[in-house]
């Protein structure tokens, strides 16, 4: 068979260039929502979460008066974020996540620093592939970006136990299911940690290790945001 000299013959086999690119597990960006006091956007594997923080602002009159600052948290899946379209109104699962996130974030915030005021946290999942831990980290970053005084950042990590296997930060298809409980050892835990605290429970040690690894990434993102803000101020 004659050779076509006008063509460059390709190799018999090839390797995708993406095989040589180090995968980026976590992408974090602050200050995306300009109307909010603070905001953060996180991509963690197949999960995409954005959070906006408003406040501290005066508590509306009908709310119970308190010298301690108040926090509210609203968690919501975007209608297009899941395999099945979500409703615009909060359902039971979203309300449950809102309570869990509020309980994880409140201990990290110096609520006594803003009496008679409240901070409102709004978390929206743009793509769902295991969201609770990522939402925890995202909300913590948004609080810090808003200048809310905190004891420390809160980083989140989930673990899924299935038989003898422990899956770290499982995707939505790997998350806990009641159907598996009858046949295998089955459980799930989500850890929110302030890395300055020492967790000693062996059952959650892997979650703690992942949370500590996320901590410098969050710090670097906030440092870059502050440097950009200072640079813009010096330019004007």
TrEMBL record:
Keyword Hydrolase carried by entry: no
Tell me which InterPro entries the record gives: ExoRNase_PH_dom1, ExoRNase_PH_dom2_sf, PNPase/RNase_PH_dom_sf, Ribosomal_Su5_D2-typ_SF, RNase_PH
Keyword annotations: Cytoplasm, Exosome, Nucleus, RNA-binding, rRNA processing
Taking every annotated instance into account, which residue ranges of this chain make up the domain Exoribonuclease phosphorolytic?
Answer: 26-149
| Compartments in which it is found | Cytoplasm; Nucleus
Coiled-coil residue windows: none
Q: Which Gene3D superfamilies match?
A: GHMP Kinase, N-terminal domain
- Mention any Pfam family matching this sequence: RNase_PH
PANTHER family reported in the protein's UniProt record: EXOSOME COMPLEX COMPONENT, EXOSOME COMPLEX COMPONENT MTR3
Q: Name the family.
A: Belongs to the RNase PH family.
Q: What is this protein called?
A: EXOS6-like protein
Q: Which organism is it from?
A: Mya arenaria (Soft-shell clam)
